[in-house]
Design brief:
Length: 161
């Protein structure tokens, strides 16, 4: 039976409303989750960009150190035979000295094999945003190889116009 007013009109029934306390805090939880996602994304962009810049710097440093090492030819052997031969100890020392003077990388590994110098530089890029998510730093490495040569005597095959 439908309830009626004293004049005989039927009263409209309203759907029961949940208590107001059940709705409190729903927006707050949503905002917290969205802000955490935003900070994580900002961390990936900002700290990832810094890590990429640190990797490029490590590669540049490794290239220059390898070139410095590849310039250390054994002059006595070259004058006697006319062939380019690296002085392995001098090449490794020159590459390490370059890395030390540049100061960008934390550690460097120098390998001299025949007339080739290979340098691997490692560096650490500290994070700003990702630190909030437990990632305090990102380790990056760059490596390069250089070969000792006497100079250009003719264009390489297929080079040029």
């Amino acid at each position: 039976m439908t309830p009626r007013t004293p004049g005989g009109q039927a009263l409209a029934r309203r759907a029961p409303r949940p208590p107001a306390w059940r709705e409190q805090g729903q927006v707050t939880a949503f905002v917290v989750i969205i802000m955490a996602a935003f900070l994580a994304f900002a961390g990936l962009v900002y700290d990832g960009g810094n890590a990429l810049a640190a990797k490029t710097a490590a590669i540049d440093e490794a290239q220059e150190a390898a070139r410095a090492g590849a310039q250390q030819i054994n002059l006595a052997a070259f004058r006697a035979t006319g062939q380019v031969t690296l002085d392995p100890a001098a090449a490794a020392a020159a590459a390490r000295a370059y890395v030390s003077a540049a100061g960008g990388g934390d550690t460097a590994t120098v390998t001299v094999t025949g007339d080739t110098v290979t340098v691997q530089v490692s560096a650490v890029s500290t994070t700003e945003f990702l630190r909030l998510f437990g990632i305090p730093a990102i380790r990056v490495t760059g490596s390069a190889t250089a070969t000792a040569e006497t100079g250009v005597v003719a264009p390489a095959a297929g080079a040029g116009p």
